[in-house]
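# nightly structure sweep
# worker-07 picked up a monomer target from the shared queue
# config: single-sequence mode, recycle default, output format = structure tokens
# input follows
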Amino acid sequence: MFFLSQLVIAQEPFLSFDHNVNTLGKKPTQLFSAVFPENDTFLIFIEDSKQLSVYQFDENGKETAEGFSFPNFAKKYPNIGGYIQENGTYTLFLSSTNKKKWAIVTLDFTYKSFNLQEAKLDIKGDRILESLTYNGKHYLFTVQRDTSTFEVYVMDSEGTITTQTFSFEDVDFGGGRRTIPNLDRLLQGSFSREVAIIDSESPIALESSKSNVKFYQEEALVTLTIDSSKNTTFYLQFDLENNTSSTQTISKASFDKDIISARSNSFIFEDKLFTLKVSSDEMDFSIYNLDSMENLASFSARKGTPITFKNTPIIQEGGQLDSYRELEKTSKFLRKVATSNPAITVFKENDHYIITLGATQEISNGGPGFFVVGGGLAGALVSGVITGIANATYYQYNAYTYTKSARFQMVLDRDLQFVPDAEIPLNVFDEIGEFTQETSPKVIQTVFKLKDSYIWGALNAKTNTLNFFTF
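# output follows
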């Protein structure tokens, strides 16, 4: 049971309202949000098996239009790639699981109506990566079959589809290997469906950063990092406004015993590239300036010796402190990371970099099922421009809370020097986790960022009341 009264005592309420749109007698299954800074509004969606109900609010939590419902297209279009707002109307870009078929749904609160347009993209054999939103349009990135050329499909709210092409045919993605003559072959060798789009404004879970193919976006400038090679990070940039591109390659550390089982990954934060390479014998963590590719700092460790640059124990745990234990030996940590999914996350607190190094795996029978398996629109909503999962902030919160990981944290100062006695501060997801620790994962809930605050909310299924709190 969800004890709302206990939560009210602990945290400042932001918004409370009743779900009173006609529900056709169906039980709500998902709750998610969409934030639109350009007109200071946000939408709350409540999904059931037949329809979605949507409510509109301003930045202060005041309802600005009467809510309404529209059909749930999840069976045909289970993913929401992104959304935009134009002149007071809202558009959702929905796709089939393989992202070849798209539906463009426009919502109009003035008339409490929706409009559906369907489109099939002419994609034959190309490798489909991810999609994101910029300047009122939605962009789907693909790599042409057996080439190093990107074809980007551009969709607008009217259903018009155009393409942009970015060629990287002059880049050696195989390091001289004949078996990898182009980018498509490189991705084929270790390709995962979990291509990630990283939102560095929120705390990032290791679960999100474990992908070796990651997108980052800053307005029209899109960056793609590829760590499919254990020895090299490929750094590709796309300017969507000017239709130009550039690339750099960053060599990773060489080990004395550079065995096949070594794995690596990277993470971008601010103007720096953080790289991690691990084998069962040793690890290297290095930081580079993205403009000059200068190596700014490096830290290394070997099995049989302690890791001297950590501020926490080496922790292995399942979500929400389940199965928590500490690993004393460096060799155990190296082995677990080298045989799993190496990952890095970075956030900043008071001019200190808080860095997490480790590996992660999804807990298959824990948490609220936030990983997309093809069910429900809320399983794939993007927060403006970020990721292919239910709103991005909520996905990050869930991934932060409900994944199994082996990791440690370290603190660096502004000059990237290790701070031995630093304490790891709680981030906002830690605070929300403490606030909701008595809340069952089965409770329908969401988390989203609104201006400088984070909002957590849940649906009381018994009373159909929604309550939201500010962090």
